[in-house]
Amino acid sequence: MNSTDVVEAQTLTSQQVVDLTRQHNYGTWRFQKNWNPMHIVDAEGCYIIDGAGKRYLDFSSQLMCSNLGHKNQAVIDAIARQAQQLSYAMPGYATTARAELSQLLAAILPKRLSKFFFTTSGTEANEAAFKIARMYTGKSKIIARYRSYHGSTAGSIAATGDPRRWAMEPGGKGPGILFAPEVHCYKCPIRHTYPGCGIACADYIEHMIRNESDVAAVLVEPIVGTNGVIVPPDEYMPKLRRICDQYGVLLIADEVMTGWGRTGAWFAMDHWGVTPDILVTAKGITSAYVPLGLCATSEKIAEFFQDHYFAHGHTYEAHPLTLAPAVATIHEMQRLGLVERARELAPYVEGKLDDLKARHPSIGDVRGKGLFWAVDLVKNRDSKEPFNTYEDKVSGKPLLVDQIAAKILGEGVTIQAWVSHFVIAPPLIVTREEIDRGIAALDKHLAMADAAVEQ
């Protein structure tokens, strides 16, 4: 073949697409031999469509990121316009999309977060946050929490508390990462009982700060994401803010999953009126139409770098094709009132899930906020023992939640399952009827878990 030959486009069957994907691509966070990915050819609203034309209700917004739903025309148009106008500019230039998005962010983010570094993922945004915190404070240690996920690159996976970190250890743990107990009142890791505990899990972090030499920052998911949608009591975040202020430690909020209306507020930290020093987000910032992450810092951090070298950057930082759709996404969220919609639908979802819990002995706990919920499965409600563990996940042992999710998929509903719970997080445009459909599919197949409950 010479340079003038034209290669005719090959029409692949759906099975060929799956086979080629399996042959040449890695399936993430899994053993490869059993990977059989579904071929998706289209998506619209709250639905995805496979190669055979079957429609599936997207009940977890893919990876809790498609907040606007699929095929929003305003966002699609913004991508096309930006591609035609200016498809790339190196980060050293100013662009209209960059200015417009920065102006919107300054108005929407928690107060005093006014300086922005743009990335292409939440993982990269966390990496930026870690470097900024260390440069600003001159200290090295970061306190993260168990039951957390912050990304897959070297620094962010080192700060991840869940078993996705284990494969990188011991070297992958990273210098200066410490782990504190998560705030989890349903199953407290330090065996206290709320409300009489006085928020002992925050006191534990204070104890760590006092006994470590150079803590730069405390890193939290305001509401824990894939590890169980764990909502802290209202006193936790204000107390943690006071502790960080007392000891001169930065507070980093990882809102990659909880941002952009997911919890019924623009950002989860808004629920408690707490402003972190650094806020990291991604996913819903463009409703995942294009990859974009954000590391937002406080005014005092921004002022520091006026006279100190900002030692960070990459080729795709502030890429205009990622920024323009973020502007459109924010405008669409405002036009459709989606933050308010998530807040208004929360009692409806909670009521439906509480009803499930009353009828299924395998449900140990239901928790969430806005349109972000977890259904936690247990062998025994008294002991709160889960059906599967982190060790089961990484060893390849079949997980009950995966088996149930496969049955739910057969009903035309996709749902995110992780270890021993389900994450329910539909697009914010979801209707009550679609909520009913998704929960009905879960209801039907929880009989598998009920049958395995210890009597």
Account of the protein in words:
With 455 residues, this protein is α/β, with parallel strands linked by helices. The protein folds into 2 domains: 14-71 and 338-450, Aspartate Aminotransferase, domain 1; 73-336, Type I PLP-dependent aspartate aminotransferase-like (Major domain) (Aspartate Aminotransferase, domain 2), CATH 3.40.640.10. 36% of the residues lie in helices and 17% in strands. It contains 15 helices and 16 strands. The chain has helices at residues 14-24, 61-64, 73-85, 96-108, 122-137, 154-158, 200-211, 236-247, 299-304, 320-336, 338-359, 390-395, 400-410, 432-445, 447-450; strands at residues 40-44, 47-50, 55-58, 113-119, 141-145, 177-180, 215-220, 250-254, 278-281, 293-298, 363-369, 372-380, 385-386, 413-414, 416-418, 421-424. Strands 4-10-9-8-7-5-6 form a 7-stranded mixed β-sheet, sandwiched between helices. Strands 11, 12, 13, 15 and 16 form a 5-stranded antiparallel β-sheet that branches. Helix 3 (73-85) runs antiparallel to helix 10 (320-336) and helix 13 packs across helix 14. The chain starts with 13 loop residues before the first helix and ends in a 5-residue tail after the last helix. The mean pLDDT is 95.
Task: Give a short summary of the structure.
The protein has 455 residues and is of the alpha/beta class. The protein is built from 15 helices and 16 strands.
